[in-house]
């Protein structure tokens, strides 16, 4: 069912003419020079918002060949931004890769952490991560893989620079002690993974690693820039290339791909586009655009059934990120876009005063909408 669902969307062969390709080349530039107020408000001073964007044009050839052509704005891996929940994307995929290396396991296998009797199912945690960006689900999968496995194997695949240095929204998040795991295999046997400790990482040395003019520490204002040097690091290009490997694995060498089964990949894809209401969440609290910043981040309207958005978002410390593959099966539209924007006018971090709704989400939503409209192949004929 999942395989048919995905194939019906992405196996759409476009025979692009030279004219079509030429018209598409300046789409990102065209959007960013738009007079639309949601775009213009940011583009009048993009440096203040630390804006970075990658747009990928997808060119499908006669023999089902796929060419991915990137266009970027202000892309710089050395300009740090906090990646927030986007790190849950590789955590979910790498958990399946590690699981796939263990005999007699599957996506429906279960595990327990540190002697806690509550069993955790891999498929359930992955579904939560993409449907509502659940922190606990991500932290649970992280205990299964740990810092070393995640960081090393991302680098082996060419997905670098990249460094995960802490868990998300949990006490002692930076602890380098990885808890013990009991893995319940499909043949009813149990494999135990003992607790272990990894070495600490050196602080990051990057541009913009210290931000703002102050931050709150236990409700006390500290009047100095907020230091992100011991935080996670997941540059936009690395994030975007992670998505490429999931959507178009055959465009990469075997050594650069994720070592998961096709069934696992299909489940990741299904989970990425699945809406909260279809994953069992209250649609009033978790509306369609809750984790779909591009196109729908500034509205609570329902997403049309013809539009599928395979993505992962993040928001924290005034930073918004989305990385998405957007498809409309009725209009033969498909493209990829990733962006990050910082909205923290007062320059104070940890005060929860950020312009997400006023500036950040409207910009990302409009960016997605305009790229969608400009990718409508029927308008190019």
Question: What features would you describe in this structure?
Answer:
This protein is of the alpha+beta class. It has eleven helices and 16 strands. A five-stranded antiparallel beta sheet has the order 2-1-15-14-13, sandwiched between helices. α5 (88-100) packs antiparallel against α6. The chain is globular, with a radius of gyration of 21 Å.
Distance between the termini: 34 Å
Task: Name the average pLDDT.
Answer: 93
Strand order of the largest sheet: 2-1-15-14-13
Specify the structural class: alpha+beta
Largest sheet: 5 strands, antiparallel
What share of residues are in beta strands?
15-25%
List the helices and strands and how they pair.
Layout: H1 2-10, H2 18-25, H3 27-32, H4 37-43, E1 52-60, E2 66-73, H5 88-100, E3 110-113, E4 120-121, H6 122-132, H7 135-156, E5 177-178, E6 181-184, E7 190-193, E8 196-197, E9 210-211, E10 214-217, E11 220-222, E12 226-227, H8 236-247, H9 262-273, H10 293-296, E13 307-316, E14 319-328, E15 333-342, E16 348-349, H11 356-374
Parallel strand pairs: 10-16
Antiparallel strand pairs: 1-2, 1-15, 3-4, 3-6, 5-8, 6-7, 9-12, 10-11, 13-14, 14-15
Describe this structure in a few short sentences.
It is built from 11 helices and 16 strands. The protein is of the alpha+beta class and 381 residues long. The radius of gyration is 21 Å and the shape is globular.
């Amino acid at each position: 069912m999942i395989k048919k669902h995905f194939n019906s969307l992405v196996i759409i062969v476009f025979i692009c003419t030279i004219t079509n390709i030429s018209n598409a080349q300046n789409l990102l530039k065209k959007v960013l020079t738009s007079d639309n107020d949601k775009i213009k408000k940011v583009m009048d001073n993009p440096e203040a918002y630390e804006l970075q964007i990658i747009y990928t044009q997808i060119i499908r050839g006669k023999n089902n060949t796929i060419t991915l052509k990137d266009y970027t704005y202000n892309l710089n891996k050395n300009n740090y931004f906090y990646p927030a929940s986007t790190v849950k994307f590789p955590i979910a995929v790498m958990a399946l890769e590690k699981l796939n290396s263990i005999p007699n396991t599957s996506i429906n296998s279960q595990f327990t952490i540190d002697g806690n009797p509550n069993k955790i199912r891999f498929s359930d945690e992955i579904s939560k991560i993409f449907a509502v960006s659940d922190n606990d689900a991500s932290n649970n999968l992280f205990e299964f893989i740990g810092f070393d496995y995640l960081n090393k194997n991302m680098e082996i695949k060419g997905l670098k620079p990249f460094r995960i240095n802490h868990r998300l929204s949990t006490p002692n998040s930076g602890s380098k002690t990885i808890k013990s795991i009991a893995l319940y295999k499909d043949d009813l046997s149990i494999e135990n993974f003992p607790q272990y400790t990894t070495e600490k990482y050196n602080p990051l040395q990057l541009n913009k690693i210290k931000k703002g003019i102050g931050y709150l520490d236990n409700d006390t204002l500290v009047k100095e820039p907020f230091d992100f040097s011991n935080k996670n690091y997941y540059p936009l290009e690395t994030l975007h290339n992670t998505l490429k490997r999931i959507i178009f694995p055959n465009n990469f060498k075997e050594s650069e791909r994720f070592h998961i089964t096709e069934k696992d990949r299909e489940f990741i894809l299904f989970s990425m586009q699945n809406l909260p209401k279809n994953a069992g969440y209250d649609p009033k609290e978790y509306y369609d655009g809750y984790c779909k910043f591009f196109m729908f981040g500034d509205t609570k309207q329902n997403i049309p059934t013809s539009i599928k958005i395979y993505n992962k978002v993040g928001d924290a410390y005034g930073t918004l990120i989305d990385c998405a593959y957007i498809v409309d099966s009725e209009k033969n539209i498909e493209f990829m876009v990733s962006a990050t924007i910082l909205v923290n006018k007062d320059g104070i971090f940890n005060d929860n005063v950020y312009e997400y709704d006023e500036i950040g989400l409207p910009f990302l939503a409009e960016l997605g909408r305009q790229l969608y409209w400009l990718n409508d192949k029927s308008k190019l004929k």
